[in-house]
Design brief:
The complex is a heterotrimer of chains A (267), B (282) and C (359).
Chain A: E1 6-15, E2 19-29, E3 34-38, H1 45-53, E4 61-70, E5 73-74, H2 80-85, E6 88-91, H3 103-108, H4 117-130, H5 132-136, H6 147-159, E7 165-169, H7 177-194, E8 197-202, H8 205-211, E9 214-219, E10 222-228, H9 229-234, H10 236-242, H11 253-266
Parallel strand pairs in A: 3-8, 3-9, 6-7, 7-8
Antiparallel strand pairs in A: 1-2, 1-4, 4-5, 9-10
Chain B: H1 2-20, H2 27-44, H3 49-75, H4 80-102, H5 109-113, E1 119-121, E2 127-129, H6 130-152, H7 154-164, H8 166-171, H9 176-202, H10 208-222, H11 227-247, H12 256-267, H13 278-281
Antiparallel strand pairs in B: 1-2
Chain C: H1 15-19, H2 25-44, H3 47-72, H4 80-98, H5 102-126, H6 129-154, E1 160-161, E2 166-167, E3 170-171, H7 175-197, H8 200-210, H9 212-217, H10 222-248, E4 250-251, H11 258-271, H12 276-299, H13 303-307, H14 310-328, H15 332-346
Antiparallel strand pairs in C: 1-4, 2-3
Helix pairs in contact in C: 3-7, 3-10, 3-11, 3-12, 4-5, 4-6, 4-10, 5-6, 5-10, 8-10, 11-12, 11-15, 12-14
Classes of the chains: A alpha/beta (267), B mainly alpha (282), C mainly alpha (359).
Chain lengths: 267, 282, 359
């Protein structure tokens, strides 16, 4: 196996020097893979993503242990715009677009070092192929777009700088299932045609498991489970607690609690 | 004339506010510093006055960038109030230092440069002094340049983007510090231009900072994040001031801008051309 | 007697205990010792030191009032000098025009302040943060302009002279008498603030400070409480202004510049936002600062050379100190104090154990 594009090794992130949000996380993403990160609220998904994109500093969090390597270079605790320029683009959870700029202007904002103007234009045209709707809306102010359109624009804007790794924070958040399905299909198409690597953070296990080649499950800041699609979709815990497909009798609240607690101690 | 002064100063407020959401209450002092910088450069380039002005303006640009790098940079991410107060403190500091260095006496850089402030006859019988004309011209040029820069320039668009959502802008690979420093530099530059031209026209002393403060309502009336608004606001505030002084009471000159400001805040707090959601974000 | 470190928990077991302001025996002892020292101070101090102390008391009242408004209710005001001016001028004008005695002018000034508080507070119903600060700043200019106008119209262009106040047959004058009177006012203000803050009003302010929409949703009358904060703060400020007028025996708009506002804001920042102790510490610091600078410069060689520009040096030094506090210690003097306290409490450990941390 070649060296992975992104590898996180024994990562620990501490907020305000007191609260440990993620601990001992080790994961990797191979070139061209879609990697899913699953977990409920507070599991540490967003913290992990922020640490990779360099944004943990804004909340007074620091990577205290472990490393994050992108293309073999260490990127933990460096400034966000440098990370972005090295080829990692993020589709954030909230505030995805610049509301007072038009769609076209939004696409102009990303800095793309090493791309000459012609290349950039070509990349933009290619990205817009995935989202023909944006072409129609190019003069519209981004603040007036619908949730789905915003998500499209956010993905498109992340892609114009020709990144090698795309981080997507909550693809499905606040969107109708039809729209989510459509966007997920686009992501798969984008991965295929641009050969890009995608790290997808999701609360909705169904969405993530559908398109991710390999997934990690986070609980309380640790990885408790990982595996390819087949392994995870058939894992009883996943079926029970994330997909809600009960195998037989419905488990009580106490069982769920107990499950989580066991994960906390032994995971 | 007064409108042009206000407008030239007001765009400095707008630039910094728009990009970094910080209200720079030291703008008046920075502008004064620019005017005093002219006194410095005037001694160097006694022969050719445009060179002296250019040098002073260049110094101001540098000052603005340095102010950001060494002071305001530390305040990013802090409370808005704290950042604003830092600028207030900076203003106090600058004022003290300026009195120490250049004394509180009135000075006339125009004489130091050996330029005569000739008056030019205008069609219609009115007369206008050379530097006043220059000031109006400069204002128009500065606004033209800034507007097209923000509308079409790549860095201009990035500046607007950084103003709306700094986090996202950084995620898009924009160096926020560079953008902020640029905004501070440009803002100080335009302020210094105003300061220099006023000083050339009517002399220079410690009261100049008050003109700077009076231009601030103009920026707010127009909407703190809009350049066009600053222009319109300056026109409104200046004409209100001239009319009231003329017809009511000359003592009013100090308060008129603030009266207009209060009226505006009551009716339409986000200003003539400002964006509405700003209010909730502050 | 327990030797337990104090800051380690919530040990109150009844409402009576909850209502007490002074909790432990050590606290009671140190507090009464401090009060004794305060009472004894005027009998040992020089007139100059007394004057300083009086200025500190005056500043404390104003700073406490501003702290209520900004530090607790979260409403930024840059009109503080305007309010002080309003109080001083109410007292001055009433005295000059109607020869009103002090027991009329002081309440009148307070009421005038309260009314102005409504005016200052009205913008806060629509505006927040920066815009609110700006509107109060504009009102400041308006008040000062009106005061100046009055001076000019009535021919007191250098200011209004106020005679020493008389209560019955007793004339209040002399540093020592003023010391006790101003001290009592400052102490009363402090008690008022303490009690306000632990009442429902104080909690409502805290809620509004944290998040207005949520406070509204929790059933707190946001508008009413904001106005109340402005009214109380302004009334206290105007009272301080009136006392200032009597203490100096002189009112002039010159004294109420924007710089004064900045000084008060500096007090609550340097002292420490959201703390009454901070307001007082800040008042002490800011009031004494110019004198300290003066002394420091006097001690330097070649002092004569700088004597003329003392004002400018003061300005510059004040700016530097404010910047230093804002940048290095946003929590102010109280923050410094707390850190020292925690350091000794937790020694030899460096951090407080976090509840819920897993390690």
């Amino acid at each position: 196996m070649s060296e992975p594009l992104l590898s996180v090794d024994k990562l620990e992130v501490v907020y305000q020097r007191a609260i440990t949000a993620v601990q001992g996380i080790t994961l990797s993403a191979q070139q061209g893979q879609i990697v899913g990160i699953l977990g409920t609220n507070g599991a540490g998904k967003t913290t992990l993503l922020r640490a990779i994109s360099g944004f943990h500093g804004t909340d007074d969090a620091r990577v205290t242990e472990g490393t994050i390597r992108f293309k073999g270079r260490r990127i933990e605790n460096i400034e966000p715009h440098r990370i972005a320029r090295s080829g990692i683009a993020l589709v954030p959870e909230r505030e995805k677009v610049f509301p007072n700029l038009t769609v076209a202007e939004n696409l102009l904002v990303p800095a793309a070092p090493g791309l000459v103007l012609a290349e950039r234009k070509r990349q933009e045209a290619q990205v817009l192929q995935f989202f023909p709707k944006l072409e129609e809306l190019h003069a519209r102010t981004a603040g007036l777009l619908s949730g789905g359109e915003r998500q499209m624009l956010a993905i498109a804007a992340a892609l114009v700088a020709k990144p090698e790794l795309l981080l997507v924070d909550e693809l499905s958040l606040g969107l109708a299932p039809v729209v989510v399905e459509d966007l997920a299909a686009r992501l798969v198409q984008i991965r295929r045609e641009l050969g890009i690597t995608v790290l997808l953070v999701e609360q909705s296990a169904a969405v993530a498991l559908e398109i991710a080649d390999y997934s990690y499950v986070l609980e309380n800041g640790r990885i408790v489970l990982d595996g390819d699609r087949a392994r995870l979709t058939n894992h009883p815990d996943i079926q029970e607690f994330y997909l809600g497909q009960s195998s037989g009798k419905r488990r009580s609240y106490r069982d769920v609690k107990q499950y989580r607690r066991s994960r906390r101690w032994y995971g | 004339m007064l409108a042009a002064i206000y407008a030239l100063i007001a765009c400095g407020y707008v630039l910094v506010y728009r990009v970094s959401r910080v209200l720079n209450l030291a703008h008046g002092e920075l502008m004064m510093l620019g005017a005093y910088a002219l006194m410095l450069t005037a001694a160097q380039f006694t022969t050719y006055w445009p060179a002296a002005i250019a040098a002073a303006v260049g110094l101001s640009l540098l000052t603005g960038v340095l102010v950001y790098l060494f002071l305001m940079r530390k305040m990013t991410g802090e409370m808005v109030l704290a950042a604003v107060l830092t600028t207030v403190a900076l203003g106090i500091l600058l004022r003290g230092v300026m009195v120490l260095v250049w004394s509180a006496q009135q000075q006339y850089p125009a004489q130091a440069l050996g330029v005569a402030n000739t008056s030019i006859a205008l069609p219609g019988g009115a007369r206008i002094s050379f530097f006043s004309a220059l000031l109006i011209l400069t204002t128009l040029l500065v606004y033209g340049a800034l507007l097209s820069f923000l509308r079409f320039g790549r860095w201009g668009i990035r500046m607007r983007a950084a103003g709306q959502s700094p986090l996202l802008a950084a995620q898009r690979g924009i160096n926020l510090h560079a953008v902020y420093a640029l905004a501070w530099g440009l803002s100080t530059l335009t302020g210094a231009l105003a300061g220099i031209l006023i000083a050339l026209d009517s002399g220079l002393d410690q009261t100049m900072a008050i003109i700077g403060l009076k231009a601030f309502p103009a920026a707010l009336v127009g909407g703190l994040d809009s350049l066009v608004g600053a222009l319109a606001g300056s026109l409104i505030v200046a004409s209100a001031e001239v009319l009231l002084i003329h017809y009511v009471d000359p003592l009013l000159s100090e308060v008129v801008p603030f009266l207009v400001l209060i009226a505006m805040l009551v009716v339409r707090p986000w200003g003539l051309f400002g964006t509405r959601e700003e209010l909730d974000r502050v | 007697m327990s030797r337990r470190p104090r800051a380690s928990g919530y040990f109150r077991t009844g409402y009576a205990q909850d209502l007490k302001l002074v909790e432990t025996r050590t606290e009671r002892w140190s507090l009464s010792a401090f009060l004794m020292a305060l009472l004894a101070f005027p009998f040992f101090a020089s007139p100059f030191q007394l004057d300083l102390a009086n200025q500190v008391f005056l500043a404390s009242i104003g700073a406490l009032a501003l702290m209520l408004l900004t530090g607790y209710a979260g409403q930024i005001s840059l009109g503080h000098a305007g309010l002080l001016a309003a109080g001083a001028f109410t007292a001055g004008i009433l005295f000059k025009e109607m020869n009103a005695p002090v027991w009329v002018t002081l309440p009148a000034a307070t009421i005038a302040g309260a009314l102005l508080g409504v005016v200052f507070g009205l913008p806060s119903l629509r505006l927040r943060g920066l815009y609110l600060a700006v509107s109060t700043l504009a009102l400041h200019f308006l008040v000062v302009y009106l005061g100046g106008e009055y001076e000019a119209r009535r021919g007191f262009s250098t200011g209004i002279v106020i005679d020493a106040p008389k209560l019955g047959g007793w004339t209040i004058s002399g540093g020592r008498t003023w010391y006790f009177i101003l001290g009592a006012f400052a102490g009363a203000t402090l008690l008022l603030c303490l009690n306000l803050l632990r009442s429902g009003t104080g909690r409502a302010w805290a809620a509004i400070h944290a998040k207005e929409t949520v406070a509204e949703a929790l059933g707190i009358g946001v508008a009413a409480h904001k106005l109340l904060a402005f009214v109380i703060s302004s009334a206290l400020t105007a009272l301080a202004g009136a006392l200032f007028a009597y203490y100096r025996g002189f009112v002039s708009v010159e004294a109420f510049s924007l710089f004064l506002t900045i000084q008060y804001v500096a007090m609550i920042i340097i002292g420490g936002m959201g703390s009454l102790l901070g307001a007082i510490l800040g008042a002490v610091f800011v009031t004494l600062f110019p004198y300290a600078i003066e002394a420091a410069i006097g001690a330097l060689p070649g002092a004569q050379r700088y004597a003329g520009s003392l004002f400018a040096v003061n300005y510059a030094a004040f700016g530097v100190v404010m910047i230093l506090f804002l940048v290095l210690e946003p929590l102010g003097l109280v923050g410094v104090w707390k850190r020292i306290q925690t350091y000794f409490l937790l020694w030899p450990f460096k951090h407080r154990p976090m509840p819920g941390s897993r390690r």
